[in-house]
Structures are given as C-alpha cells and as structure tokens.
Amino acid sequence: MEIITLGNEVLRQKALPIQDIDAQVKVLAQEMIETMHRGRGIGLAGPQVGLLQRIFVVQIDGDSPRVFINPTIIGTSPEISQYEEGCLSIPGLYADVTRPEKVTVQAWNERGRPFTLDAEGLLARVIQHEYDHLEGVLFIDRLSEPKRNRLLTLYDKKMRA
User: Fold this and answer.
1) Is residue 26 within 8 Å of residue 114, measured between CB atoms?
2) CA 119 to CA 76: how far, in whole Å?
3) Can you tell me the distance from the alpha carbon of 100 to that of 5, in angstroms, rounded to the nearest whole number?
4) In a 3-state reduction of DSSP, which class is residue 28?
5) Measured between alpha carbons, how far is 28 from 35 in angstroms, rounded to an integer?
6) Is the backbone of residue 39 left (phi > 0), alpha (psi -120 to 50) or beta?
7) 20, 41, 69, 125: which has the fewest Cβ within 10 Å?
8) CB atoms within 10 A of CB 154
9) What is the pTM of this model?
10) How much is the average pLDDT of 83-96?
11) What is the DSSP letter of 63?
C-alpha cells in the first residue's frame, strides 16, 4: 500500500460506508496497520491509501492496534486542548491543533463486532484526526488561514527541494 500525499484529490473526498465486513476487509485492516507502522505513524485512514471507504486504524504507544469501521463520533467533551499534529499524507509538516480532549466513538471492528469507545488524550486526538480524513478534512484545515498558508508555502518549498 502506498500513502497518498497532499495534492491528491482523494484526500478531499468523503469516504463511503463499508457494506460488508468480510475476510477482505480484515485483510485490508491488517495491510493498513502494516502501512501505518512502515510510515511510523499512529493512525491511517482509508482515503490516505486511496480507498474512499470509512475505515481507519490507530495505535498509540502502549496500546494494541485498533480498527474502526464505519465510525461515528457520538460525543465530545467541552474541554479542549492544543497538541502538535502531523500527518502521513503531509510529511514533515506539523502544527498545533485544538480539539476536544475526549470523544465517544461507535464503530465496528475487523471481526464485524460493534463497539463504543470512550477515549481521551492522545487516543481521542488520533481518532478525531483519522475521522476527519473520512470526511475529506485535513488537520491543516483546522488552522487559521494565515497559519495554513504559511505552512503550505513551507511544504511546497520542501517538496521542490
């Protein structure tokens, strides 16, 4: 699997629900986990590997890989925090992003079992970041326009170097 980078239109499209969670989806989830590890990331969504499907995988330090299929964020905390984010699809670019500190998410795992997860801290942040990918939103979209433009100019220079 190849990681799609900024400029590819698939990153700006809304992903579609997965209809059947079958053996093929289980293989897809495993390949996404391997691709995420190879890229030294802590999250990876379907659109980032060219698939407009509502699936993402996450693994933060000290945790096992988690698979989220057709996720829905059903709750967020009023408490917000800032944290530096990066993205495998925008290599080398980092910025502080403000997000809710806690989320409640419903999804299905790779075995087709539904679950609800209350997450906080880094796990909550990664879930929100990857969920955004399913909506065609990148972390840079959550920055002020001047900051986003400055970062994109830096990114363009880096990519041409």
Assistant:
1) no
2) 10
3) 26
4) helix
5) 10
6) alpha
7) 20
8) 12
9) 0.96
10) 96
11) S
